[in-house]
Amino acid sequence: MSAATDLRELLADGEELTIVCHNNPDPDCLASALVLGRIAAEAGIDERRILYSGDISHQQNRAFVNLLEIDIQQFDPAVVHDRPAGSLLAFVDHSRPGVNNHVLEGTPVDVVIDHHPADGVEARFVDHREDVGATATILTEYVRELGTEVDDRMATALLFAIRRETLGFLRGATPAEYEAASYLHGLADRDLLRKLSSPSVSSATVDAIADAIDNRVVHGGVLLSHVGRTSERDALPQAADYLATLEGVDTTFVFGIVGESIQLSSRTTDSRVHVGEVLTDAFQEVGSGGGHREMAGAEIPLGIFADYTSDDELLVDIVESVVTARLLASLNIEPDDGDSEAEND
């Protein structure tokens, strides 16, 4: 049997489904959760919920949830860890308990559908394809094979997710993404796609990106920067994307203090650098990090850093020193190789 058929048979034996998104879910994760819920409904599961941890702070992600009217709830440990018999647990766009989610390590998982690099993925049903560009591509394959009704809302969600995850088919796109997009194109709401593509940007996000520009330090083709303390976690990948367009720069790392953790986002166009592996190597002992060759992220609890001082400015300086040292060591770059462009402009 195919993966889609196997999934439907597993869902048909369940009485309820809890879909857990990764922390700070993006359109690929959200669209995949939405569509898995639809497949579960057609398999006979009436009680379904989508949970997430962290924040939906990126303006594009907020617009995605609001315009597509996605019913999503904050993570509830009791719902996940005290499930009754017949209650299924699913991960979409991530794969392991305790990694980029708040599920306890060792929690049994029933369904995993993901495209991110990972080892040791375990579940009753696993479709883990690192060779595709988006998890939404896999879900599109499922609905086509199963004959699931695809309305304009679902088609729009999937098509936008694929486009966003691949940066308009320029990053990590495979023939599977083009095939999925071709199928979805005629079904999607084009006006809604336009609205999702150009949401308003908050002033806090603009300020955070401006801080990243001011704080940049370049080591050859590698740029390191930070935004200090911010409530705009999703300004980090936006800053990393923007700074990656700087002439002479092919790899960017941007960090910020968000709540009680240090968040990092990275981008590269250098085929010699795998930023997912760089972040894993740099921070696996103190936090979690990883992702694709071209894009990745990391999260480190503030922990002992916060015990040094209550002064945010001093705290940022301490964090910057430690994060920079770990990144440069992982990249095999000597600390003296860097030049602060902000000071030289």
TrEMBL record:
NAD keyword on record: no
A GO molecular function held by the record: 3'(2'),5'-bisphosphate nucleotidase activity
Protein name as it appears in the record: Bifunctional oligoribonuclease/PAP phosphatase NrnA
Domain DDH, residue spans: 18-162
Organism phylogeny: Archaea, Methanobacteriati, Methanobacteriota, Stenosarchaea group, Halobacteria
Keywords annotated in UniProt: Hydrolase
One Pfam family recorded for the sequence: DHH
Enzyme Commission code: 3.1.3.7
Annotated DHHA1 domain residues: 222-302
Domain of life according to the entry: Archaea
Organism: Haloarchaeobius litoreus
